[in-house]
Amino acid sequence: MTFDRRTLLGSCGMLAVSALVGGTAAGAGPGRFEVTLSDAEWRKRLTPAQYAVLRQAATERPGSSPLLNEHRKGTFTCAGCALPLYSSATKFDSGTGWPSFWQPLPNAVRTSTDTKLGYERTEVHCRRCGGHLGHVFDDGPPPTGKRYCMDGVALQFAPAKGGKA
Fold first, then answer.
1. How many domains does the structure of the chain reveal?
2. Is the separation of the CB atoms in 69 and 99 below 8 Å?
3. For residue 10, what is the domain's CATH number?
4. Residue 116 resides in a domain
5. DSSP line for 76-137
6. Which domain covers residue 9, as residue numbers?
7. Could you give the CA distance from residue 56 to residue 132 in angstroms, rounded to a whole number?
8. Is the link from the previous residue into 143 a cis peptide, with omega within 30 of 0?
9. For an engineered disulfide with 130, which of 28, 104, 149, 150 has Cβ 3.0 to 4.6 Å away?
10. Quick one: CA dihedral 33, 158, 97, 136, positive or negative?
11. Which of 78, 126, 129, 149 is catalytic?
12. In this structure, what is the dihedral angle of CA atoms 21, 27, 32, 38, given to the nearest 10 degrees?
């Protein structure tokens, strides 16, 4: 099989455009996640703000999430598919204006490299539906030193039953 320069450049261009305008988080294609819905189904399931963050990797305004001040024992779940993501025991006040955690629950999230701002950041996604949750940074508290800076609109809170976190 041979390729000329025009074919090669055209193919690369199409891949770049696909990556930029894809309707799912992090270029997540159909079949890559347990929960896979059409764009129309996601729009029906989510509020406009949830759709913008979870499916288009937007960022909510800092300080706007009611979950920022959620201090009860419980679990923070994905607003897209209800997968448990973070225990309230790992939540801390980072002073950034977004709910922050020092560790996700086991097998809850995946990460990818995000260069949308012109430098590398680590983007965090729900491992079940691929929804964009936020970013993780290396300036968090012990014991992990991580700050999972999450968009509150991408999360829902489930209070603990019987006082357990």
1. 1
2. no
3. 2.170.150.20
4. yes
5. EEETTT--EEEEGGGEE--SSSS-EES-PPTT-EEEEEE-TTSS-EEEEEETTT--EEEEEE
6. 5-159
7. 8
8. yes
9. 28
10. negative
11. 149
12. -30
The whole-angstrom separation of Cα 8 and Cα 2 is 10
- What pTM value is reported for the model? 0.79
For residue 165, tell me if it sits in a domain. Answer: no
3-state class of 23 per DSSP? coil
Residue with more model confidence, 164 or 69: 69
18's enclosing H/E stretch is helix 5-21
Burial class (CB in 10 A: 0-12, 13-18, 19+), 3: exposed
Nearest residue to 76 via CA among 68, 87, 66, 65: 87
Q: Quick check: 130 and 33 in contact, CB under 8 A?
A: yes
CA 97/CA 80 separation, integer angstroms: 22
Domain-embedded: residue 164: no
Q: What is the pLDDT of residues 3-46, one digit of tens each?
A: 344 433 443 433 333 333 333 344 443 448 889 999 999 999 99
Query: Is residue 129 annotated as a catalytic residue, yes or no?
Result: no
- The answer to whether residue 118 sits within a structural domain is yes
Tokens of 86: 């973070």
